[in-house]
Amino acid sequence: MLRIKLGCYKQAQLFGGWGRSMSSVPPQPVPPLSQTLSRYLRALEPLVTPPELEESREGVQELSKRGGLGERLQRSLEKRAQRTHNWVSDWWQHTAYLESRLPLPVHSNPAMALPQQDYSNWKGQLGFAAKLIAGVLDFKAKIDNHTLVVEYLRGRPLCMDQYRQIFSSCRVPGPKHDHVMHFAGVRRPPTHITVVRNFQFFQLEVYNSDGSPLTVDQIHSQLLRIRSQSWKTDKEPMGILTSEHRNTWGQAYNTLLRDRINRESVRAIERGIFTVCLDAPVMRMSEERYTSRMAAQMLHGGGTYSNSGNRWFDKTLQFIVGEDGACGLIYEQATAEGPPIATIVDHVLDYCQHPETVRSPMVPLPLPKKLYFYITPEIKRDIEHAKQNLDILINDLDISCFTFREFGKNFPKKYKLSPDSFIQVALQLAYYRMYGCLCSTCESASLRMFRGGRTDTIRSATNEALRFVEVMEDPQAGAEMKLALLKEAIEAHSTYTEQALQGQAIDRHLLGLKLQAIEEGLSVPEIFMDTSYAVATHWKLHTGQVSARTDCVMCFGPMVPDGYAVCYNPLPEHINFSVSAFNCCAETNAEKLAGSLEQALRDLRELVLPRED
């Protein structure tokens, strides 16, 4: 699940890098119980029926009783906050990611489609990949040397812990839940990346014997060697196994690791700093559908007859460099959210424009190590099943990407309106026009103002948004009333955003209350058992703003079978969108929602523009 609200980050170098800044990052607060419960009831109002709301109100009153269960759970959470690094982040990582049994592609791992590069053959591919690898190592050096610029949001420093977790890490399947392995902090941290081409994996050492990173020229020569060793395309696509249902992959993983050769190859992939996927070209589509096709390639590889075998979906960070100029990345987000990934991408693409010209040492480099796998009949069957299941999943996903060029984030800013809130209200209008109601909508707010903070949920389906969309569709309503209600809806979203950034949203607190009851062996509060809670957490609109300087767009799959996922990157003069839905649901259509969203943005623009007499 991707839940990101990047906001407007400012950067400033603190003395000694981020290490000293962490003392000024406070612990994440536990919101007051009464505040969360009252805000929860308000969040339900535009989503549920009056009888359902009344049932929830009774449950809230029961939980609010003095000396009752609610107070006991609240005290336990406050004690937990005093003795832990962050009172909710570990819980969140487990419940949102590691306990999920759904396949990682589409259902969990977000991807980012970068601007198409200006090459169209394998020579350009390897040249760009060499610069990209050098750029990533340059960013990693800032982390290792504690010289990475500390990020600020609204004048406050942000927790930089996530950057430490991104490199040299990997998710590993387990029988009941997965876990993440981190290798960067071990006594002898990894010094290699993995490169995969034609479904074949290679271990590539990226540091010289003196500890200096390989130069662009050295990396390029090693990529040429990898190309010469990976001509055959009849190899089994081992990476496909990582696309399976987590229980299925966990069983196959244990089977795979029985063999020593397989075990060494898997460990090399897991320990690698990151992975680079050298993809084969894909069939060209019309220009109109090209961005959508490219986003799909980044998200899942296009299927077993395309580049899906060139992935290890458990790996935290994978850069994708296509022979046809299609480039991007996919990442496993149990470790980190989108904003740090976007920062890395911005740095790497800047580096690729102006790579450091360092003279290569006159030292022969060892050959990249090819990673071999011993394929038993059992493993072969597992691969065939994984192929079938992944192709079914890919065929079920519909992605529609588009660039809205009539305005960008500068337009709402001109009228002192939040660009993100403006887009979110437009999305509510687009959905309402298609379905005649609002639905539970989640957008993520970063909690990196707090030590170890991950995210909380901005609930965009508000009473104010409902009043606005109803009046907007009323032909008798005047423009002044519509504009006034639009501003109220935008203000309501902006207020909720601010509350979430300050650690005062409701969803992580509610999760904590529920999990604390389970941990103490107490009865789970009734509010988590009623219809309203089910409706309120059935996220039919899964949205995220991932702001990057790069002209790119992030994409991910819906959270529920009858839902949508919408991600956007608002740039000064245009906005990049991705919309996805599942074909198996007759009620959803990604292209229709994209069209409805475009029209909603135009209509909001017309409302805001000054009237001429």
Secondary structure layout:
Blueprint: E1 9-12, H1 18-21, H2 33-44, H3 50-64, H4 69-83, H5 89-98, E2 111-113, H6 122-144, E3 150-153, E4 156-157, H7 161-166, E5 169-172, E6 179-182, E7 192-197, E8 200-205, H8 216-228, H9 246-256, H10 260-271, E9 275-279, H11 287-300, E10 317-322, E11 327-331, H12 338-353, E12 369-371, H13 377-396, E13 397-404, H14 410-414, H15 419-435, E14 441-446, E15 455-459, H16 463-472, H17 479-501, H18 507-519, H19 531-536, E16 541-545, E17 553-555, E18 564-570, E19 575-582, H20 590-608
Parallel strand pairs: 7-9, 9-10, 14-16, 16-18
Antiparallel strand pairs: 1-3, 2-11, 2-17, 3-4, 5-6, 7-8, 8-12, 10-11, 13-19, 14-15, 18-19
Helix pairs in contact: 2-3, 4-18, 6-8, 6-12, 15-16, 15-17, 15-20, 16-17
Describe the protein.
The protein has 20 helices and 19 strands. Strand 5 and strand 6 (179-182) form a beta hairpin. Helix content is 43%, strand content 15%. Residues 1-18 have low confidence and may be disordered. The longest helix is centred in the first third of the chain and has 23 residues, at 122-144. The protein is of the alpha+beta class and 613 residues long. The strands form four sheets. The chain has an eight-stranded mixed beta sheet with strand order 12-8-7-9-10-11-2-17, sandwiched between helices. It has two domains: 9-95 and 401-608, Chloramphenicol Acetyltransferase, CATH 3.30.559; 102-398, Choline/Carnitine o-acyltransferase, domain 2 (Chloramphenicol Acetyltransferase).
